[in-house]
Amino acid sequence: MMVNRNILTLDEFTIQQLRQFPKATGELSSLLRDIGLAAKRVNVEVNKAGLVDILGDAGSVNVQGEDVKKLDVYANNHFMGVLKHGISCAGIGSEELDDFVVFNDEVSNNSKYVVLFDPLDGSGNIDVNVSIGTIFSVYKRVSEKGKPCVKEDFLQPGNRQVAAGYVIYGSSTMLVYATRRGVNGFTLDPSIGEFSLSHPNIQCPEYGMFYSVNHGNFFRYDEKVRRYIDGCQRKTKDTGGPYTQRYIGSMVADVHRNLIKGGIFMYPGTVDKPKGKLRLLYEANPCAFIVEVAGGAATDGVQRILDIQPTELHQRTPLFIGSKGMMDELELYLQAKI
Ligand code: AHM
């Protein structure tokens, strides 16, 4: 197989972007490089998950009351470590940690950004060899530079994100990230160990064939949501046939497929859990930012995800996200206009 060595690597791409802004400090490029490095290390461990004794519960329970797998701990520590030793990040918030972490040394206190991440989304799928991922979100801190970062830096609405992205550890490993200027996807080329630009300027199709939802919860959803799901299974004027149901159980993989091919992903509230399962800061906000930059939309069923003012680090939110045309159609159902 001929491999095109002229394809830009992640580092080359971020530097090329940086060169368009001669006054930029390069902190964001450096941060993305750090994230790329951590992703490569986690990828190595994910790839050998079936071979080594790294599977299974780490014996602890995370702040959401869920079992923590060993790979979650590994990924969390790697992302945190790489960001701590970089030059761009004042502190982090992680889905796996109770509270945010202030790096609190001279370089970090003078850094511009804070990062929030879900180190291993879909971790329930680790031991069955299904795609899992890391999701991240970058904010400019609101606290004074030179001092340790504070909680308010992490509790910013998603519309203040500077960048967001995810890594999918799947049939190939991909890093997709968005800034306000666009969404770009990089595939890990194992022969050189670099993320290479494979999906420039990703645009989410206005319509697609896929709807992704946990059907097992159907009778716990609100009636309007049930009517929409029911509608997905019938003929629609836009596609000429029913949508195809695809639900991986790793949001990052479901959202990625729908971003590329067009579709809608839903994790609605249920009677017993009105706020659903997903976390606003670690899952919903970064995905909403990426999908919106690519031309799609994301709501909690009432308002735009990115406009929600967070009040706590681990708050949950219902999530509806995907192709713009399908989201508009969903809204008609949610407003009881259909
Ligand atoms: P996790 O953080 O424990 O991995 O849970 C998040 C995952 C999402 O990736 C996925 O969409 C969802 O949980 C699936 O939940 P369910 O099994 O309730 O449908």
Q: How would you describe this protein?
A:
This protein has 9 helices and 15 strands. By secondary structure, it is an alpha+beta fold. The strands form 3 sheets. The chain has an 8-stranded mixed sheet with strand order 4-3-5-6-7-8-9-10, sandwiched between helices. Helix 1 runs antiparallel to helix 2 and helix 2 packs antiparallel against helix 3. The protein is globular, with a radius of gyration of 20 Å. The site of 2,5-anhydro-1,6-di-O-phosphono-D-mannitol has 11 residues, from loops. It is found in: Cytoplasm. Keywords: Carbohydrate metabolism, Cytoplasm, Hydrolase, Magnesium, Metal-binding. One of its GO terms (biological process) is gluconeogenesis. It holds the Pfam family FBPase_C.
Features:
338 residues; alpha+beta; Fructose-1,6-Bisphosphatase, Chain A, domain 1; D-Maltodextrin-Binding Protein, domain 2; 2 domains; five-stranded mixed β-sheet; binds 2,5-anhydro-1,6-di-O-phosphono-D-mannitol; hydrolase
Question: Would you report the number of β strands?
Answer: 15
Helix content: 25-40%
Question: What is the domain total for the residues?
Answer: 2
Put simply, the count of helices is 9
| Superfamily (CATH H level) name of the largest domain | Fructose-1,6-Bisphosphatase, subunit A, domain 1
Strand content: 15-25%
CATH topology of the largest domain: Fructose-1,6-Bisphosphatase, Chain A, domain 1
The kinds of small molecule bound in this structure are: 2,5-anhydro-1,6-di-O-phosphono-D-mannitol
N-to-C series of helices and strands? HHEEHEEHEEHEEEEEHEHEHEEH
What is the C-alpha radius of gyration, as a whole number of Å? 20 Å
Q: Distance between termini?
A: 52 Å
Global structural class = alpha+beta
Main sheet attributes: strand count, strand direction, barrel closure? 8 strands, mixed
- The level 1 CATH classification of the largest domain is Alpha Beta
Shape: globular
CATH arch. level architecture of the largest domain: 2-Layer Sandwich
Within the largest sheet, what's the order of strands?
Answer: 4-3-5-6-7-8-9-10
Roughly what is the average pLDDT, rounded to an integer?
92
**Unreliable stretches, pLDDT < 50, 5 or more residues?**
none
GO molecular function: fructose 1,6-bisphosphate 1-phosphatase activity; magnesium ion binding
Domain Fructose-1-6-bisphosphatase class 1 C-terminal: 205-334
Binding site for Mg(2+) 1: 95, 118, 120
Pathway: Carbohydrate biosynthesis
